[in-house]
Amino acid sequence: MKLGLDFHGVITDNASFFSMMSSLVLSEDSGEVHIITGARKEMFLKQCKELNLKPEYTHFFSISDYHIEKGTDVDLSDPDFPKMDSDIWDIAKAEYCKTFEIDLMVDDSPHYGEHFTTPYMLYRNELNNDMFKYDVIKKIRKRTT
């Protein structure tokens, strides 16, 4: 199995659960865990240290680092939080998952899911809790089906 996990709002929100999930996937012969995040690798490592997190993973993908290396127009006025066109940003995780044949992506951002062909699991946390109200789900279903 190839599992994709977002960092902010997923691993940072429930590190013990996703650590257990990662261990199960990695215990398989060909199991892979891909951290797929917007954060630059340097920021990810810094925050792991600050939060005392030690996520197990085999692959790391940063939307920011990828697009900086690719030459996309990226605003680096705050190097820890690069900014770019939201259309480019929003599809990056979906494209990565399709390219690397990820079996399941877990993320806390509902709008990313619209771009996925890979199975996409929306993780509920305090920041997106309103998205799980019946009337909001009903509107999303009308828009995406």
* Relative helix content: 40-55%
Order of helices and strands: EHHEHEHHEEH
Mean pLDDT over the full residue set: 88
Question: What radius of gyration results from the CA coordinates?
Answer: 15 Å
Classify the secondary structure makeup into a structural class: alpha/beta
Can you put this structure into words, describing what you see?
With 145 residues, the chain is an alpha/beta fold. It is built from six helices and five strands, in the order E-H-H-E-H-E-H-H-E-E-H. It has a five-stranded parallel β-sheet with strand order 3-2-1-4-5. Strand 2, helix 3 and strand 3 form a beta-alpha-beta unit. The longest helix is centred in the middle third of the chain and has 14 residues. The mean pLDDT is 88.
Please outline the helices and strands.
Blueprint: E1 2-5, H1 7-11, H2 15-26, E2 32-37, H3 41-50, E3 59-62, H4 63-70, H5 86-99, E4 104-107, E5 120-122, H6 134-144
Give short descriptive properties of this protein.
145 residues; alpha/beta; 6 helices; 5 strands; 41% helix; 14% strand
TL;DR of this structure?
By secondary structure, this protein is α/β, with parallel strands linked by helices.
